[in-house]
Write a structure and sequence with these properties.
The structure is a single chain. A hairpin with a 3-residue loop joins strand 5 and strand 6. It is built from 9 helices and 13 strands. Strands 9-10-11-7-12 form a 5-stranded mixed sheet, sandwiched between helices. The protein has a 4-stranded antiparallel sheet with strand order 3-2-13-8, with helices on one face. Strands 1-4 form a two-stranded antiparallel sheet. The protein has 340 residues and is α+β, with helices and mostly antiparallel strands.
Length: 340
């Protein structure tokens, strides 16, 4: 069989980021070279025989057909969300989307590189103890074929483990600000956590406070948020409202403002209060929110950070990715994933 490019970010997603739909061309930033270029989606976020490995030295095992079947199961739900711009929040849809996120999380080159990093850390640990990793029973050298095999053979177990963790989150959609477009990197499922969990890290899929983002198109990002995120937002907003009320009472009693002034101020703030209440409710129950410029830029910075090499933008505005790459050189090959 002739060697072929096999995608680890599917073409049906990349088509949502094309600058030329007819020729299916995308604008790309290369973190390794610092350069931009335009290419067909056939050539990007894919490698020759990425989903194949040698088995018993004379047989090629392929995951490509299985990957295709998995994609076929999620495409109808994906296309429905793209078309409508809303989530149904049905158990069936949420389960499918959770499975989709888990599959995309484990199938990328960055995920495969994790196995290479594990080999490096294991070797360093054994050598510090005065041993040789080659002496460990069952050890296989970290050749490209062996890394492929470990990655592909363990993928099913990881998907089964991660899907229920993701499905337990609060799902919502975020629309891009009209002046912005969402990036997509070659490891598009990205994580963030505002909570500090100390030396054990805070970026596991099941960790308290985790936020998961996956771009579905240049205009929509799927968010899977730990329920504690909505609780934290509601508390912060309620605390702010309470503090403003105290300040208002103090201003009235000190004679700085009249009761009529206070009523006018309260009424002027009502649209903001209503908007905040709706947004927090959507975090809890699911829905679609409009992302501000800062929110879109933040999610794009995560895409730039997690990408092992390539970042795409439909509007061909890759200045943020370039700036991030220059300011944070330790992420030029992506982020070593944590999965606990």
């Amino acid at each position: 069989m002739a060697a072929q490019n096999q995608h680890f970010v599917p073409k049906f997603i990349l088509r949502q980021f094309t600058i030329n739909e007819r020729d299916e061309r995308v604008r790309v930033y290369d973190k390794h070279t610092g350069k931009e270029f335009t290419t067909s989606i056939k050539n990007i976020m894919a490698e020759r025989r990425f989903n194949e490995f040698m088995f018993d030295d004379d047989y090629i095992a392929s995951f490509e057909e299985i990957a295709g079947r998995i994609e076929d199961t999620v495409i109808p739900v994906y296309r429905h969300v793209i078309k409508t711009g809303v989530l149904e929040n049905s158990p069936e849809q949420q389960a499918t989307l959770a499975f989709f996120i888990a599959f995309q999380f484990v199938r990328t080159k960055a995920s495969r590189d994790m196995w290479r990093q594990m080999e490096k850390l294991l070797r360093e640990h054994v050598e510090r103890m005065g041993g040789k990793v080659e002496d460990i029973e069952g050890y296989e050298p970290a050749t490209e074929e062996n890394i492929k095999k470990r990655h592909l053979l363990n993928m099913r177990g990881f998907i089964e483990e991660f899907t229920p963790l993701i499905a337990a989150k609060n799902f919502m959609l975020m629309r891009a600000h009209p002046s912005r477009a969402f990036y997509i990197g070659d490891h598009p499922v990205v994580l963030h956590n505002a909570e500090d969990h100390g030396p054990y890290g805070n970026l596991g899929l099941g960790v308290h406070g985790i936020e998961i983002y996956m771009p579905l198109s240049s205009n929509l990002v799927l968010c899977a948020m730990c329920p504690s995120v909505a609780a934290r937002l509601r508390k912060e907003w309620n605390d702010g409202v309470s503090e403003r009320q105290k300040e208002m009472v103090a201003a009235i009693t000190s004679g700085k403002i009249t009761i009529s002034d206070a009523i006018r101020i309260r009424e002027s703030l009502r649209p903001l209060n209503d908007k905040a209440e709706i947004a927090i409710n959507q975090f809890e129950a699911g829905g679609t929110i409009d992302g501000g410029v800062d929110q879109v830029d933040f999610i794009n910075s995560l895409q730039a950070m997690y990408a092992s090499r390539f970042v795409i933008c439909k509007k061909a505005n890759l200045a943020l990715a370039k700036r991030h790459n220059e300011e944070f050189p330790k992420f030029r090959s992506g982020v070593l994933m944590q999965t606990s």
